[in-house]
């Protein structure tokens, strides 16, 4: 990474810095292992996101993809890396409100030079896109906006507003895709989904992929009292590090005390909808925001990839 780029990114990831000799690779790998615990078939979903965005860009250009892509809630840059590898002429902007996550993204993506841009911004702000046009030369219009396991952190009101902001940022025909949790407003179904997800997580970590792929509804009635009253399986069984443990260890390694670690996030935490809103809510909100051909592109119980194209 050139000095100019390093300075630009430093300015935009906040004032935190990595201590000298910091083993960022260890933390990036540890992040990905930890996230695989939460996101069912994370790699498969990242690959599908890349394939859909790349396919769209290739179709549009007819010669090879050089898309401009924005990743909302990019964290340490895992999905950005997949996109940058899938489209060697693409430029990707990653946005997050956590400067500690962006530090890892900056180290991880340095090898992409000017193709990777990072910015500290709060997606709940009405002006985040305008600010980033000045700070990190975010284009007026981009080809695709993507996200993974981040937007359920927003409450319904701010999320609906964000869908409007995404539509405003996309070129006509541009693609929005989100890989995230989707919930059910019918508790027995939510219980069944979460139980199966816990089983899949456990099986995934034990290498029992046949059991992980078993359809939980094949031999049980999701509407029956039996399933509705079932206890969710132990989500920790067979799995590696939980979220909180990662953050406690990583922020301590950065030299932050508990109060500093808690205060680091721009605008503060204020919780979203942990289990995710129903898919129908998202598809309706996207239509309302100016998207067409809204659809579910992948789904496994309460995890999905959904999105749509900005109307022409
Ligand atoms: C579970 S992590 C996922 C990170 C990354 N997309 C991945 O899959 O590895 C969720 C990310 O969303 C970010 N995030 C949540 N709410 C946000 C907001 N209001 N503005 C910006 N980033 C936000 C968090 O800081 C965190 O990095």
Keywords:
alpha/beta; Rossmann fold; seven-stranded mixed beta sheet; 13 helices; globular; disordered N terminus; binds S-adenosylmethionine
The fold-level CATH name of the domain at 3-15 and 25-183 and 273-310 is Rossmann fold
CATH class of the domain at 3-15 and 25-183 and 273-310: Alpha Beta
- Tally of DSSP helical segments: 13
Unreliable segments (pLDDT under 50, ≥5 consecutive)?
1-10, 214-238
- Gyration radius (Cα, Å) is 20 Å
Class of secondary structure makeup: alpha/beta
Total beta strands: 7
Mean pLDDT, nearest integer? 86
> In the CATH classification, which architecture of the domain at 3-15 and 25-183 and 273-310 applies?
3-Layer(aba) Sandwich
Indicate the percent of residues in helices: 40-55%
Ligands in the structure? S-adenosylmethionine
> Biggest β-sheet: count, sense, barrel?
7 strands, mixed
Write the H/E string, N to C. HHHEHEHEHEHEHHHHHHEE
CATH homologous superfamily heading of the domain at 3-15 and 25-183 and 273-310 = Vaccinia Virus protein VP39
Measured by DSSP, the beta-strand proportion falls in: 15-25%
């Amino acid at each position: 990474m050139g000095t100019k780029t390093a300075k630009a990114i430093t300015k935009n990831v906040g004032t935190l810095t990595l201590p000298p000799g910091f083993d960022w690779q260890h933390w990036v790998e540890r992040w990905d292992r930890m996230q695989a615990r939460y996101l069912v078939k994370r790699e498969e979903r990242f690959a599908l996101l890349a394939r859909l965005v790349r396919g769209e860009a290739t179709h549009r250009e007819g010669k090879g993809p050089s898309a401009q892509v924005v990743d909302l809630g990019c964290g340490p840059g895992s999905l950005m890396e997949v996109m940058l590898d899938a489209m060697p002429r693409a430029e990707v902007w990653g946005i997050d409100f956590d400067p500690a996550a962006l530090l890892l993204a900056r180290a991880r993506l340095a090898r992409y030079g000017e193709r990777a841009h990072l910015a500290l911004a709060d997606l709940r702000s009405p002006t985040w896109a305008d600010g980033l046009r000045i700070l990190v030369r975010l284009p007026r219009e981009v080809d695709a906006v993507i996200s993974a396991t981040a937007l359920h952190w927003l409450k319904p009101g701010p999320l609906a507003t964000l869908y409007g902001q995404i539509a405003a940022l996309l070129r006509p025909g541009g693609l929005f895709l989100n890989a995230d949790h989707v919930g059910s407003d019918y508790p027995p179904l939510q219980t069944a989904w979460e139980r199966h997800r816990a089983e899949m997580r456990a099986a995934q970590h034990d290498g029992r992929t046949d059991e992980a792929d078993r359809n939980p509804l094949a031999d049980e009635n999701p509407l029956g009292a039996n399933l509705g009253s079932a206890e969710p399986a132990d989500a920790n069984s067979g799995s590696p590090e939980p979220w909180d443990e990662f953050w406690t260890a990583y922020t301590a390694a950065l030299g932050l005390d508990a109060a500093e670690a808690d205060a680091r996030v721009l605008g503060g935490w204020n919780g979203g909808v942990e289990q995710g809103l129903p898919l129908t809510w998202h598809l309706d909100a996207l239509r309302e925001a100016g998207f067409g051909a809204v659809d579910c592109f992948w789904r496994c119980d309460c995890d999905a990839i959904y999105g749509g194209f900005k109307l022409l």
